[in-house]
Structures are given as structure tokens and as C-alpha cells.
Amino acid sequence: MLHCALTPQDRQTPSASKAVSSGGSSAAQSLISALDSTTEFDASNVLLATVSINVLDKHGRPHACRAVLDCASQVSFISQTFCNELGLDLLDADMNLEGISSTPAHADKCVQIIVESQCTDYRTTAPCMVLNKITNTLPIKPANTDGWPIPGSITLANPLFHRPDMISVLLGIELFFQLLEPGKISLSSDNSLPTLQNTKLGWVVAGRYRYPTPQVTTTTCLLATTDDSLNQQLQRFWELEEYAPVSPHLSDEGKRCEDHFYKHTVRDDDGKFIVRLPFLDSPSLLGDSRQIAEKRLSHIERKLLRNPLLKLEYHAFLREYLESGHMTLIENPPNDAIYLPHHCVVKESSSTTKYRVVYDAADYQRLVP
Questions:
Q1: Listed residues 217, 245, 272: the one ending a domain
Q2: CA gap 166, 226 in Å, rounded
Q3: Distance CA 205, CA 322 (A)
Q4: Fewer Cβ in 10 A, N or C end of the chain?
Q5: Are 58 and 174 members of one domain?
Q6: Which residues, given as ranges, of the chain have pLDDT below 50?
Q7: What pLDDT, on a 0 to 100 scale, did the predictor assign at position 349?
Q8: For residues 43 and 59, is the Cβ–Cβ distance under 8 A?
Q9: Are residues 68 and 191 in the same domain?
Q10: Residue 319 falls within a domain, yes or no?
Q11: pLDDT at site 39
């Protein structure tokens, strides 16, 4: 879709475009289909494996961040904001990415990071692609962990796993199975609570959980795509192409140029545009332009006498101007006529036209005493 989706109420509002543009990120959603159903399933009651790690900056100093472990990602990622905080040198890259439902993305920068555990002595390096944003905050909503039988003898890789927070790094399949250690603990026998898994970064908490009392709610399932960057680019395009009924402020010189265009630019029956040469100052300041042009002509004639081939090509070029109507012979020129000097330019390397006639008003500066 090329524009933000409008609700029926927006379509009835005269200022619908303003209402959509002020809708924030929700205005960028392109709704494909919707289904209302009553179900106990809530996808937000799922914890992904998040860890708290340290990443070294360019000076070797550790910076704490939250990372997510993703065995379904072929590469690892780091956010642009966190990368700027670390001050690391970025390398050029060119990688097309594809997510769920073939959602496309592109990364043009990569960086090598050093990852340290906050609760063990584990350290490793990881090549990461740089993205503006990896994902939303994880988990989606806070989890009430009261009564969860988490053993006090283990060290969690992310003690605040139940609180939503920003994700700065995603560690993909290249490191995922290297991080796994023997040891898994199920917090419930009926799968109503997540599972603990031991890793080199500490124990992670992952999986679905249910509240003790089932909460039957009406859930709206939406199949939608959100691309704020594309929406913003389209909005800037429409603003750039927007017709401005008010004329921009012009300088005196710009106003004279615009007036000259309106007065002296026409289009003939063959579709050709006919324009008149503009003058910044009065043509009388040029002096006797005919005398100057005659000096140039006498110089050209002497040159043509020494080179018969050049004379032949020069005359052929001028005849072409006459036949095409670009030039007309004037028997009785007016007294205030302006004469424009010209000369021939030879380009031996040209495979088509080696000889060209150039009209050069700069000759006035070279020939006027």
C-alpha cells in the first residue's frame, strides 16, 4: 500500500490526512486481515531467552546491555544506537535480510564485538550486522514471577528477565549452541511455567507461562506489517511534490529572469521552443559588436584558407544550421543588432563529427581594446 490506512471515521472527516499523519507509528500499519476470537491463548505470555552481557567498547571498557538468544537467526545483530555508544569502527557490508512472512530488510554495516558474561569468566567475539532497531522491548509485558520455584543456588543470566527492556544485541545460531551447557530445569510439571536452561552466560528463563487462574479474554488477531521508515519516506516525497500556490520570494535578478521567460518563450507548431537570449545589462555596453565579429571572421577566414578540409566542414556545418531553420540570413540588419562571434573546434578523437562551430561571446572580452 502506498499510504496510511484510513478508518471509516477518517474518510468522513475533511481533515483525514492530518488525522492520519498525527497518528504516530500506528498510522504506518497496513492492515491485511483481522479475526476476533475468544481464546485462552495469549502470545504475550511467552518469555524469550534474554541475557545481560557486557560488550567492550573501542577502549576495552565494558558496557552492560540486554541481548536475546535466537537459534533461528543465521547472523548476529547489534543496534546502531548501542554501536555508536561503543564507538566501534564499522565496516561496509551488503546483506539482504528476510524475516517472518518474507519481510525484507537490508544491512550495509557490520562490526566485530567482544562479548563478556556478567556472572562467569566466559568471553568470545561475535561478528554482527548493524541495524537501526533489532526488536521491540522484551518481554512484551511484565511477568508476575511471585511463586515461581526458581532455585536460589543458580545464577540467572538476566535477573530482570521478567521486566520489559530494550534489546541491544541479538546472538544468532553461530553462538547459540556454543553457549548451551548441560542442565535444564522445568519450573512446573504441567508446562504452566517457563523452563530454565544453563548457558555459559548463566541460566536463562524461556518459554510460555500461564497464570494460576485462567483468564478468558477476547483477542484480536491481526496480520499486519509496520514500516515506519517507508511511511516517512513516502510522506517526505509527497511534501516535496506538494504544489505551492504561493510564489517563493525571488531576488530582483530572479524576478527579471522569470519575467523574461514569460514574455519571450514560445513554442511553434512543430513543438520546438523558441527563446530569446537574456541580457543581464544593456546590450549597448558591448560596444560595436559588428566590428568585433568582423575581426573574428577575418581571423577564421585566414585559418580556413590554410586548411581546405576545415573550410569544407565549417561551411557544411553552417549550411546545416540554415537548412534546419536555426539560422536565417538577414539582408538589412537593424542598427542595434548584436553580432555573436564564432570559431571552429577540431576534435580528432571524435568518431562522428570532428569539426564543430562554437559561438563564444567571451570573444568580446578578448577582442575589445
A1: 217
A2: 19
A3: 87
A4: C
A5: yes
A6: 1, 9-39, 216-227, 367-369
A7: 76
A8: no
A9: yes
A10: yes
A11: 47
Structure confidence at residue 248 (pLDDT):
66
pLDDT in the model for residue 50: 94
Same domain, 64 and 210: yes
Note whether 86 and 201 are same-domain residues.
yes
For 18, the grid coordinates are 492530518
Domain boundary among 191, 217, 243: 217
List CB contacts of 72: < 8 A, sequence separation 6 or more: 173
Q: How far apart are CA 109 and CA 141, in angstroms?
A: 31
Q: What is the pLDDT of residue 35?
A: 44
| C-alpha cell read off for 328 | 536565417
Query: Residue 147 domain-assigned?
Result: yes
The overall pTM is greater than 0.90: no
Helix axes 308-323, 289-306, angle to 10 degrees: 130
- Amino acid identity, position 251: S
Number of C-beta neighbours around residue 175 at 10 A = 20
Domain count, the chain: 2
85 and 194 together in one domain: yes
Same domain, 184 and 324: no
**Residue 26 in domain:** no
Domain membership of residue 240 (yes or no) is no
Contact yes or no for 192/10 (Cβ under 8 A):
no
Predicted local confidence at residue 135, as pLDDT: 87
For the stretch 276-306, pLDDT in tens is 888 777 777 777 777 777 777 777 777 777 8
79 and 207 belong to one structural domain: yes
Per-residue confidence (pLDDT) for residue 140, from 0 to 100: 84
Is residue 262 packed enough to be buried (19+ CB in 10 Å), middle (13-18) or exposed (0-12)? exposed
* Cβ neighbours of 85 (radius 10 Å): 14
Same domain, 211 and 290: no
Range of the domain at 209: 46-217
Give me the DSSP letters along 297-345: HHHHHHHHHH-HHHHHHHHHHHHHHHHTTS----SS--TT-----EEEE
| Exposed / middle / buried, residue 194 (Cβ in 10 Å: 0-12, 13-18, 19+) | buried
Q: Tell me: the pLDDT tens digits for 168-179?
A: 999 999 899 999
Q: What percent of the chain has pLDDT over 90?
A: 30
